[in-house]
What does this fold into?
Amino acid sequence: MNKYQTSVSLLLVVIITTVAGAQNGAPSSHFVFNDRGDGDIIINEVRVPKGGEAMYTYYETLGWGGSGAGYAGIQVHPRARNFIFSIWDHKSHTAPISAIHHGPGTETKGFGGEGTGLKSWNFELGWSTDVWYTLVSRCRPVGDHTYYGFWVRAGDTGRWTHLVTMDVAAKDAYFRGATDAFLEDWVNSGVNARTTNLRGCWKRIVDGTWIAATEGRYSVNYWDLTEGKRSYNYRTAWNGGVAKDDTGEYYFMTSGGADTKPTTANPSTFKIDRTEKTPPFETIAVKNVTSTVDNPGTLRVKWETDATRAPQFSCLLEVYDNRTGEGDPVASLSVDEPHKREAALDVPSRPAEKQYFLHLKCTDIFDREAAVSVVVIGMTEVK
It folds into this structure.
């Protein structure tokens, strides 16, 4: 074999290997819930069963459309198990997407490929198999922009974590369309089976009405299953439906693996009856409120919230000259950043013998109010 023949043979090996590998992806699957309508809060729960974990898998849990379209979920990444939240660039945006809050361990960076945008990763928080995680995103208009917050609740500890808030330069960019979840193998690793479990999908419509999704449409990307396409060698390695264990009913999707076979049609619709009217999470609780006064008359306040109760969305600080909060406050301040746990406000002077009372009113991400915390500002603190 001459040098030319050797080169051609090697090239053919590379081409054949590449084509074969390109057909080894696990089929991409979707589950689209029946919660259509413009909303400002979306919720979904995800669990990866122990036998359903596979490297290079995106267990997407929240997907939405509109001028602030994006998606969020959990991944098995070579670095670690992570939480991801991403928003796409849109032609209506008047400025680049930015992150105005990074929770502990959260990283943000631009992404490309099928469109561009900003994504956040968190490899430090971590997640475990066989544990349910609640993912929540809430958007709110801020002038001509829309802010998107992302929170996670771990089912084993009950603790909430605020991972990121993104600023999208588009007005009233609510969650549009139906909430979507998908299961994706982002390399050609269809030899490994991966499974996602889903339940508890909610959307709050912009008029304040809650929708508890009661069904969804399961489908597999059929265009990837034909010869020469990315999932051809695993074209029958998919399945989805409803299952039940001691935690109740849930939806599942499985793709990849030699033993995975469909037991339903592509597409199919599945239902789970639900009777609850609002999300079941405990209302925010405030604790450990402290205050100090600097001269001349700057009141500095710090507080904590119970991490196992619904997380903070906003707070109102009001100072009264009476404990019950009658009449107009002598000073007030609104805290609209969900991650803030301290604030400063100016307090007017008053006679040394007269006390002031701080009233701290906090609201959670579901717009439920905590019991008002009342703190006495000592008589000698304000001069």
The first strand starts at residue 29 and ends at 33. The chain has two domains: 27-271, 286-377. The radius of gyration is 25 Å.
